[in-house]
Design a protein that fits this description.
Number of strands: 5
Number of domains: 3
Number of helices: 15
Order of helices and strands: HHHHHHHHHHHHEEEEHEHH
Structural class: alpha+beta
Oligomer: single chain
């Protein structure tokens, strides 16, 4: 059995007595120690105010020590100098109190707030405005130039001998073009499947093109419905069977794929597959005599087919389709055109005497090549990219003297 010692009242009173020099005794002397610290701070601040040069010279001196806030009994001590000896003596004297309260020492050891030096940034140099061109106006008699059209805008043969739309169409799709399309289509069918070649003739090709024209006049949700016994068109049914039409539709071609150059190689053409057809139609249009008033503007060939050439122009009546840059007259006839295939600026498309005016403006220059010179034609452009200043820079391309 463990023996327990019972404490009497005298032992309990002995344990409860406060020994001398304890922390409770220190709390009784806080007021005295605070008075001593305040007195020392007042002396230091008065000395600094009377001698501001001391603070300016010795603030960043190595002799000035800033105590760590973790220290419980450290104080801000300034080493003695010639002008602050009295302050140093006061700070170096020991305190009359037994011990300084840690809380009061933290307050006294905090460094005074020092104003940060002002950094004066260099003032920006004034931007010199560009010198404007000065014009000197002189009072003179204005002599308007002669703007009378010197060309001939009367249609001649064979345009005056066309009696039907078919003759007008066959003028552009002549026998040479039809023979070329038939030859390339037959060649493509052999390249596609040599065991099942499709022999395309000029007569079959004319029938195929005629049916394609009727498709634009009689739209159907499905092409096969045109050969339906109830909803079909008798003229189409009598002209060609559905099987022959599908065969021609699968092998129709305008250029030889062997000569195709892939993207990234020199000579790559995005419109390679239809380039012979485009060039033939352009030459036919350029041969028509041009009227006095001409215009360069964009037109839309409406379609929603999934193709990289399809453009979206919200301000046009037909918002989706292929974008064409066209040179036409005031009657709406097109003398030249280009299909927009992207902002391409190929130097090979420019003539040696033509300036580089940018991708869009170079299109206008190319379309105006077929306009006769020195006939005083009036050309209007509605593209923002082709203004008067660009036209003046490219006057050599138009062979115009100012």
């Amino acid at each position: 059995m463990s023996r327990r010692k019972n404490l009497n009242s005298d032992d309990i009173q002995q344990f409860l007595e406060i020994p001398s020099g304890s922390e409770d005794d220190l709390e009784l002397s806080d007021e005295d120690s605070d008075d001593d610290l305040i007195r020392i701070q007042d002396l230091v601040l008065n000395e600094v105010e009377t001698c501001p040069e001391v603070l300016q010279d010795d603030f960043f001196d190595e002799n000035v020590s800033i105590p760590s806030p973790r220290s419980s009994s450290s104080m801000l001590v300034i080493q003695p100098t010639s002008s602050s000896s009295n302050t140093a003596n006061v700070a170096s004297q020991p305190s009359t109190s037994r011990q300084v309260n840690p809380r009061s020492s933290r307050v006294a050891s905090r460094p005074q707030a020092v104003p940060t030096p002002r950094i004066i940034s260099p003032s920006p140099q004034p931007v010199r405005p560009k010198p404007k061109r000065e014009y000197i106006w002189r009072k003179m008699d204005f002599q308007p130039p002669d703007t009378t059209f010197a060309g001939v805008d009367v249609l001649e043969q064979p345009y005056t001998t066309f009696e039907s739309p078919l003759q007008y169409f066959l003028h552009f799709f002549d026998d040479d073009l039809l023979d070329h399309i038939a030859e390339e289509s037959t060649k493509y069918s052999i390249q596609k499947d040599c065991s099942k070649p499709v022999l395309v003739t000029k007569t079959e090709l004319k029938k195929y093109l005629g049916i394609c024209l009727l498709l634009g006049l009689v739209p159907q949700p499905n092409i096969r419905m045109l050969w339906n016994s109830i909803l079909g068109i008798p003229l189409i049914i009598e002209t060609m069977t559905l099987g022959n039409f599908e065969k021609l539709r699968n092998v129709i071609h305008f250029n030889d794929n062997i000569n195709y150059k892939p993207r990234g190689e020199p000579g790559h053409d995005r419109l390679f597959r239809i380039r012979p057809l485009l060039e033939t139609l352009r030459k036919k249009c350029q041969a028509v005599p041009k009227r006095e008033t001409l215009s360069v503007d964009e037109q839309m060939c409406a379609t929603k087919a999934c193709n990289f050439l399809r453009q979206y122009l919200p301000n046009k009546p037909h918002k989706w389709g292929y974008k064409l840059l066209v040179l036409c007259d005031d009657k709406g006839f097109a003398y030249d055109f280009e299909i927009y295939s992207g902002a391409e600026n190929d130097p090979e498309l420019r003539l040696p005497d033509e300036c580089d005016l940018g991708a869009s403006s170079n299109i206008v220059v190319r379309l105006c090549r077929s306009v006769p010179r020195n006939q005083k034609s009036k050309i209007k452009t509605f593209e923002k990219c082709f203004n008067l200043s660009i036209f003046k820079r490219g006057r050599q391309a138009f062979q115009i003297k100012w």
